[in-house]
Amino acid sequence: MHVSWEEFGWERLGHSAGRRRLPVWDATVALVAGQDGALLYDTGSTLREGVELRTQAEALLGRRVTHIALSHPHFDHVLGTSAFSGAAVHGAVGTADLLARSAEELRADAVRHGMSAADATAATDALVAPRHQVSGESTLDLGGGLQVLLANVGPGHSGHDLAVLVPGSPVVVLCGDLVEESGEPQAGPDAVPSHWPAALDRLLELGGEDALYVPGHGAVVDAAFVRAQRDRLAARFGVS
Fold first, then answer.
1. Maximum C-alpha span of the chain
2. Which candidate, 157, 156, 175, 155, places its Cα nearest to that of 165?
3. Model pTM greater than 0.90?
């Protein structure tokens, strides 16, 4: 039986990709499907969300997710990763070391934001760090002529920001929390404000004027929105 993306609350983004805004923290996950492989960008905030995303992806594609790309190491984007056994996990260089030593900090942050202690503990106990770390850019061939670009464009929102470029018409740029639409960009203790505008400049270079830019939280935006947010961040942090 054919299952549509919309039945699961997913928004189509061109021919090969779609995304879903998860409840509670409005974090975006995105799925990119080639002929042979499938990439999930971020995995949700709990094991339960990860399992749900895996089940939905398999129903939509008729096969398993082969690759995970983590936009940055914050709890609402990475704690569902262990639901995807066998998938190759990618992150910006340094992400693996950070996650290996910061499980307790992630757990505490999740609880501080309203997650139950049981859910936070279960997810951080099963925490999966990337084995494939991206320094600069890396290309993944998902088959059928679809090659996606993983780009280490940070630091900015965090010390380890990874974007994904999906070619097509339109081009889709998965931005993580470098771009936020549903609220002002959040600069936590691991943000690097002095580099954040430059990270957005890099996103704009990758995608160009006609791309769809998918923020970590909120509605899909265009290049003009990203540029305006870049200018506001530069003014906010006193960066040229």
1. 55
2. 175
3. yes
Q: What is the pLDDT of residues 191-238, one digit of tens each?
A: 999 999 999 999 999 999 999 999 999 999 999 999 999 999 999 999
Say if residue 4's pLDDT is above 90. Answer: no
Q: Is the dihedral of CA 44, 50, 55, 59 positive or negative?
A: positive
Structure confidence at residue 10 (pLDDT)? 96
Residue 34's beta-bridge partner residues?
Answer: none
d(CA 70, CA 74): 9
Measured CA to CA, the distance from residue 84 to residue 67 in angstroms comes to: 9
Q: What is the pLDDT of residues 43-74, one digit of tens each?
A: 999 999 999 999 999 999 999 999 999 999 99
Residue in 194, 174, 197, 168 with CA at minimum distance from that of residue 71: 174
* Torsion angle, alpha carbons of 174, 199, 93, 50, to 10: -30
Tokens of 202: 């890099």
Residue 75 contacts residue 106 (beta carbons within 8 Å): yes
Question: Cα Rg for the chain, rounded, in angstroms?
Answer: 16
- DSSP line for 57-112: HHHHHSS---EEE-SSS-HHHHTTGGGSTT-EEEEETTHHHHHHH-HHHHHHHHHH
